[in-house]
Specification:
six-stranded mixed beta sheet, Rossmann fold, 56% helix, 618 residues, Serine Threonine Protein Phosphatase 5, Tetratricopeptide repeat, single chain, alpha/beta
């Protein structure tokens, strides 16, 4: 047999080299170590608030590191004398034989190319980024990077997250939801704070959305979270105030109270939160909170009231009948309980809308009950709002003329449910349907539900592509929700669709450049220039939008001057002062609280329509 026939094949020599160089053994050890690391990461990362992205990065690093590690295992050995280059079997010394370096360098280069290519592909495929957060737009909103906590950073906006019900035995959801609604309502009356509506935060119920993501989506400086535990005679509420951007707890407190003090407790909690965030509060607002905090009433009346509110929110004729029974029980136990009487009036009115033939469905009686609630407590927001909505929507001959509610939205749970029912019915014509949808979208914006307003307005412009008011409001709602890129895209789609008021191609080009350079401020610089140009040509410009541009650009005195003009003109778009983030820079100014008291008087006053095209103009 010749020497060539005795020589092993190339593949056999390669397998032999893998064994001699311990590559197979190293690969098995690498796999075992990687498994242990990944198992350890799954346990440890969540404990430090690191989500799926952290684990994803570790998996990618471990995977991409395998090929370079195998190359190093081929080239080097770990010996008692340290790490040495693996000797060639045909070499007599440690020196590599001539010509053997080039193939190894080629193999190493090939490995680097493969690893780099895989890494680029994974990056383009989104493996290094977060999945879109719940409620984010199509662009996908990734979890924001935590910022360092700064105690000097002012808190001008809050969101009260759903309170966790940890009561033994369950069945207390109505109680924890009632506590959340009450706390939200109390804080919403502070002019120096913007408080996101309960409707907007309920999407986070039962989710693990990170606090910084919630803060970014709702555009708030801080969130309030906590828990409620209730037994037969006592309630324990734990509340935590957290700075959203840094996910840093600022203040935590636990309250233990008798059930008779539950509703008063919400005012006490609200007072302490206002103190902690150093929000500006007027003497009237402070006096109101203090009065509510000192109120004590029959615990069973409070229990019936909270159960009534829970059923009231369910929105069916059966639920309204149940709510009426609970509210009636509360009033029977405490005849001065104005919110319970307002709830009874609201339930009765809603029942008359949904099931007019049902026993107790008497709108005239509902109006009397609502008026009596206001007479009992003229400072009760629930009573005033229910009475105003019922009075302006009474059916039949001789009913009061409906007020212009184009920019008006209820700010309490009782009022919102009536509004939703009033605007639910079908309309006579396509045009009426469109106007009703615009009214509903504006009311959503006034109450701070910019996400829902955006969804509704998208539908309007898709079916009415030349309807300028729809495009105008859609862009404004997206901007209020913090989606400046979506705002630019919407205005560009409006340009393409045409119609009255649409921006030109040159204006869109200027807008893109401004936003690229200065972000949201770039948008407002562009919008202000466009509004000033319109005004100079004699066209009407909303005082609310003009003031918003001044506020966003830091021109505070100009903003207040224009806002006062808007109040005198009865501009209903100013009702967004309570909910729109653009006004946050003004909230610590003493003039803002005074202005808010004037704006609130516009809510159910007879409507005033400015000249020119209806609604906001730029």
């Amino acid at each position: 047999m010749t020497e060539q026939e005795h020589r092993p094949s190339g593949f056999s020599r390669f397998v032999g080299e893998l064994s001699r160089r311990h590559v197979v053994r190293f690969s098995l050890g690498y796999a075992a170590a990687a498994f242990v690391i990944l198992q350890f990461a799954q346990i440890v990362l969540p404990a430090f608030g690191i989500g799926d992205n952290g684990l994803r990065v570790i998996v990618i690093v471990v995977g991409l590191g395998f090929l370079p590690a195998v190359v190093l295992a081929w080239l080097f050995d770990i010996t008692p004398e340290g790490i040495r280059r693996t000797a060639d079997p045909e070499a007599t010394t440690d020196r590599l034989p001539e010509g053997s370096l080039l193939p190894r360098l080629a193999f190493l280069g090939f490995t680097v190319l493969v690893v780099g290519g895989v890494g680029l592909w994974l990056a383009r495929d989104g493996a290094f980024t977060s999945a879109p957060a719940p409620g984010s737009d199509s662009s996908g909103v990734v979890a924001p990077v935590l910022v360092k906590y700064d105690a000097r950073q002012p808190i001008r906006s809050l969101a009260v997250l759903p309170l966790e019900n940890i009561s033994p035995g369950g069945g207390q959801d109505y109680f924890s939801e009632g506590m959340q609604e009450e706390l939200t309502a109390q804080l919403s009356q502070i002019s120096g704070l913007r408080v996101v509506s309960r409707t907007s935060v309920m999407r986070y119920l039962g989710t693990n959305t990170p606090i910084p993501t919630i803060g970014k989506e709702l555009q708030v400086d801080a969130v309030i979270e906590g828990s409620v535990r209730r037994d037969s005679a006592h309630v324990r509420i734990t509340v935590q105030l957290i700075q959203a951007a840094s996910d840093t707890p600022i203040w935590t407190k636990q309250y233990d109270r008798d059930l008779k003090d539950v509703l008063a407790l919400e005012s006490e909690v609200a007072q302490e939160i206002v103190r902690e965030v150093r929000a500006r509060i007027t003497p009237e607002e402070r006096a109101r909170l203090a009065r509510l905090a000192s109120t004590s009433m029959d615990s069973r009346a409070q229990e019936s009231y909270l159960r009534g509110r829970y059923d009231y929110q369910r929105g069916t004729p059966e639920a309204y009948r149940s709510a009426m029974r609970y509210f009636q029980e509360a009033v029977s136990r405490d005849s001065t309980f104005a919110p319970a009487l307002a709830g009874l009036a609201g339930s009765r009115f809603l029942l008359s809308l949904s099931d007019p033939a049902a026993p107790g469905a008497d709108p005239a009686l509902a109006e009397k009950e609502a008026d009596r609630a206001v007479a009992l407590d003229s400072l009760s927001n629930e009573a005033r709002e229910v009475a105003a909505i019922i009075r302006s929507n009474m059916p039949g001959p001789g009913a009061a003329r409906p007020n212009d509610t184009t920019w008006v939205a209820a700010m309490t749970q009782l009022g919102r449910r009536i509004e939703e029912q009033l605007h639910r019915g079908p309309t006579d014509t396509a045009r009426q349907g469109r106007i009703q949808q615009i009214v509903a979208a504006r009311q959503l914006m006034v109450s701070g539900n910019f996400g829902e307003a955006t969804d509704l307005l998208r539908g309007i412009v898709e079916t009415n592509p030349t309807f300028g008011l729809g495009w105008d409001l859609l862009a404004r709602a997206q901007l209020a929700a913090g989606q400046v890129d979506s705002t630019v895209a919407t205005l560009d789609r409006w340009r393409a669709a045409g119609g009255q008021g649409a921006p030109t191609a040159q204006e869109i080009q200027a807008l893109r450049a401004a936003v690229k350079k200065n972000g949201v401020k770039g948008y407002w610089t562009w919008a202000l220039a466009r509004m000033e140009q319109r005004e100079a040509s004699g066209q009407h410009v909303s005082r609310g939008e003009l003031a918003a541009a001044y506020a966003a650009l830091g021109r505070t005195d100009d903003a207040f001057k224009v806002l006062q003009e808007g109040v005198k003109a009865g501009d209903r778009s100013l009702l967004t002062l309570q909910s729109d983030p653009v006004w946050d820079p003004l909230r610590s100014d003493p003039r803002f609280a005074e202005l808010m008291s004037q704006v609130r008087s516009l809510r159910f006053a007879p409507g005033h329509r400015p000249p020119g095209r209806e609604g906001m103009r730029r």
